[in-house]
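Can't attach files on this board, so I'm pasting raw text. These are the components:
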Amino acid sequence: MDKYYINHLRELEAESIYVIREVAAQFERPTMLFSGGKDSIIMYYLARKAFWPAKVPFPLLHIDTGHNFQETLDFRDNLMEKTGGRCIVRFVQDSIDQGKSAEETGYDASRNLLQTVTLLDAIEEFKFDAAMGGGRRDEEKARAKERFFSHRDEFGQWDPKNQRPELWNIFNGKKRMGEHFRVFPISNWTEMDVWQYIYMEDVEIPDLYFTHKREVFNRNGVWLATAPFMSLRDSEKPEIKDVRCRTIGDITCTGLTLSTANSLEDIILEVAATRTTERGGRADDKRSEAAMEDRKKEGYF
Amino acid sequence: MSDFKDKQSGYLDMQLLRFTTAGSVDDGKSTLIGRLLYDSKAIFEDQMEAIERASINKGDEYVNLALLTDGLRAEREQGITIDVAYRYFATPKRKFIIADTPGHIQYTRNMVTGASTANAAIILIDARNGVLEQTIRHAFIAHLLQIPHILVCVNKMDLVDFKQEVFDKIKSDFLKISNKLTIKDVRFIPISALKGDNVVDESKNMNWYQGKPLLNVLETIEITNDRNTTDLRFPVQYVIRPQSDEYHDFRGYAGRVAGGVIKPGNAIKILPSGLQSRIKSIESMKKQFDRAFAPQSVTITLEDDIDISRGDMIVAVDNEPTISQDIRIMACWLNEKPMIVGGKYGIKHTTKDLRCIIKSLDYKVNINTLDKITDDKNMGLNEIGQVSLKTTQPLFFDSYQRNRITGSVILIDEATNETVCAGMIL
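---
Top answer:
Structure tokens for the assembled complex are below.
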């Protein structure tokens, strides 16, 4: 008797492609959020697979904090050119200049939180009715209950009491005028699945994920990259280290991993051996329960 | 690197198993999940340190693994929505997704939601209490949602001196109930989630138990034959027409196979038009497959140019689903607003969106005793019963028992857009 089964990566792939196609079918003006990090790269790759040989039938949207690694922006532009994709870019700096958001001050200033204002403005500007994001349920305890199709009211807010039950693979994207959905096609992927899939499919990723020499400094046990807009305390001394990014985001809060991994094989072994979460490893989180709350406020999820 | 290849080729070829756990905190469910995550090293140092600190602060004698899945308890204390939480772990053999649901009767809707995608269910029984009302409820839901494999874990064996008689009694009590239900595969495992007996490692305290520990069972249950591979069902999800010179004549039908095995050359029929053609190719990005089956997402092309759109279904010429506007479902009501007999609702079935009217509530089921209730004609939140519907256009369906994908529907309240009912077609 024939055995009909596909491995876990193919099953996750099939699920994500199904979700992305549902979004394209159920919504009039969907978009896919793109940050240049591995999760959004995978999501875009799956979208290309979902509609091949046609082009992806929606634009990507990048909310640029202005604090990106240059490598990320170059990678994004290159990828769009190669694949014929369209990526809309909206800048946090513009929201600040328009007085809609205020820059944080101090050593730990970050534009992570400010992204929300710019994102909601962009959704309004383009009348997007669904925005796909690369969030994964394994990232955070609080995300473990997120739906694939997550309903947002006309203010873009999430009401945890008003989440629709999601059964089988039947997704209910019905909404009123002015409301929109956030959709998370790779909800069920773990960090390891993402890396294994990149390896299996030979997906191109930015060089930042591989080891390179960079000027870094240590803040509360986390290695951060130096950049013109980062101010260092007297005790923080820049030095050159072999590092790689485990996640890629805003420079001000992207912790770098000391690593000499220079291939996908190395990275997968490193992830398999790693004993801290992707989002963890921050010395300041460990001091009190409140530190975790603070991190939430910074807009991590 | 040769070492890597060997190791990773194994990792890359794992199967995915989705299982649900129903039980209350008192059954030791959180401890069991914590134990599985901890012993399979799915818990990271920073998470472990956090619960160690929390345990010390609370004055616990040992690290309280239940704190790892504490979200639900916190929710209850704060009085917000109790929900399904998804958790992930992997062993070298399989990747697992746990749909962790609370087991009390007021959370039936959450159990049904978690069970809808599960390959297996863990039902926890406290060895000191034996089979209770809630055990019957959990077994009934597993049966209703047709979860193929049920693992009954008799927990807290350490508190009954690891006695075989206690385990055997619970086993025979459970079988008396499950024999009345359609449960394909049921297994019993005596465990102590707290002490770790028969969870990951074999217990040294229960030599009389001949079976494998829970994790080993989860790693080895045969799940490849659980999906329908006999009835070709391909609900069309999206039509792909590239506007490019290179693929000018390409017309593909994208979707996720719901049943059967599709091969190029297969004679097919399109519903509802009834037009016939043959499968020309099965496409993925820059690749072609020689076959496709559930749950694969593919794009297929046909030999003939036929007008097909989303909501149509491609089936084998000689094997059609039922085509009807009148359907009977076992319904689980998910909303605070009760069901209105005679009311109109939106209905979603595979990729099809229709409207329907509720003709009658035939009976309800007391899910604690499995008795039929015929004198109460109101169906409210968390209640389960048989409902007759009429849809605005014909649906193409199989019974839920035959195919979980083509046999399931959801109903939507047209005023609030909320999903109010899960239906399994009879």
